[in-house]
Structures are given as C-alpha cells and as structure tokens.
UniProtKB/TrEMBL annotation:
In the presence of PdxS, forms a dodecamer of heterodimers. Only shows activity in the heterodimer. The keyword Signal does not apply. PANTHER family: PYRIDOXAL 5'-PHOSPHATE SYNTHASE SUBUNIT SNO, PYRIDOXAL 5'-PHOSPHATE SYNTHASE SUBUNIT SNO1-RELATED. NCBIfam families: PLP_synth_Pdx2 (TIGR03800). L-glutamine binds at residues 48-50, 107, 135-136. Catalyzes the hydrolysis of glutamine to glutamate and ammonia as part of the biosynthesis of pyridoxal 5'-phosphate. The resulting ammonia molecule is channeled to the active site of PdxS. Its EC number is 4.3.3.6, 3.5.1.2. One of its GO terms (molecular function) is pyridoxal 5'-phosphate synthase (glutamine hydrolysing) activity. This is Pyridoxal 5'-phosphate synthase subunit PdxT. It comes from Natribacillus halophilus. Belongs to the glutaminase PdxT/SNO family.
Amino acid sequence: MVKIGVLALQGAVHEHAKMLESEGTSEAILVKKEEELYDLDGLVLPGGESTTMRRLIDRYGFRDPLRQFAKDGKPIFGTCAGLILLAKHIDGQQEGHLDLMDMTVKRNAFGRQKESFEAELDAKGIARDLAAVFIRAPLITEVGDSVDVLAYHQGEIVAAQQGSLLTCSFHPELTDDHRFHHYFVDMVKNSKKAIV
C-alpha cells in the first residue's frame, strides 16, 4: 500500500480520496497539518480557488514543505486550482505560488461556473476516451521542454506531466472514470520503488 495525501484546505477533497482508494492499493490521507506530509508517498492538490488556497498554504506554513516534497521526488497531482498552484508562471501575476512546474497557465480560461462542461479526452498513456469535467477551468498556455503534454481539448493543453509532477485543468474526481487517478497511483508506486 502507498500513502497518498490530499491537501484538505479547500475543494473536492473527499472525492479525490475516494478515487485514490478505489483500486485498493493506496491509502488516502486528508492532510491538514505540515507534519502529516512527512509519511506520504504522494500528494494531490485538489481544485478550489487558487488564491484562497495560497493564503491557506501560507497561513498553515505549507509552502516550503510542499516545495521540499516535490524536490524529494515525491509525486504531486494538481487538478484545476492545484494545477495553478504548481505552475511557475501565471498569466497576469508577477509570480507563481509553488513555482514547481515549467508552464504558464491562465486562470478561468474556459469561462465562469455557468459555462462548465464535460468532454471526452484522448489522454496520452492513460485513456483514449477519458471523461473530464471542466468547472471554471484554467488552461496551460505554454510548457517548457521538459514538460510532456498529455491531453488537449480543442487544440488547447489541459493535462501535462513534468517528472513527478502531474496536472490537469479538469476535475477527474467528479466523474466515474478512475483512470487518471490510477495513472497517478502508478506514478507513486514507481517513485516509491525508485526512492527505496
């Protein structure tokens, strides 16, 4: 069993935990304190509101421990607002939040809440018919050379990976399609083997 945390400051925390435990090879831990990070093999940064999440990360002293978690090679999966937290560059902002992944993102690129939609994506190495729910979703507008694009929607980048960092613009936890989470669990298992 691998232990995967879900940063439980805001967002669809329980939905992610349920998805992570669906295949029976990972235990999901709801993370509310910095010290709860130390025992984990991987971490999910859920959707929510990225500016609010950054304020809570700062208030509870998570920023440096999260950056160290990534530097230690432990996988992190950011969905929607979690994607924004991971990005080095955010359109219209001076600096990123965690500054970990070599990409530029645009907040709310797909419109407001009422313009939410579902789509089927061809996600490289994951599924050719992946169910995706977009809610006030950000967009990856640019990626560095070391970033692998995993999925597009209408020619725009909506999922990517850079080493142990995985991101998507959408909410896979709000569907019955577990394959994106299974892909992340496999990343965590492989990373744990490599670290040991």
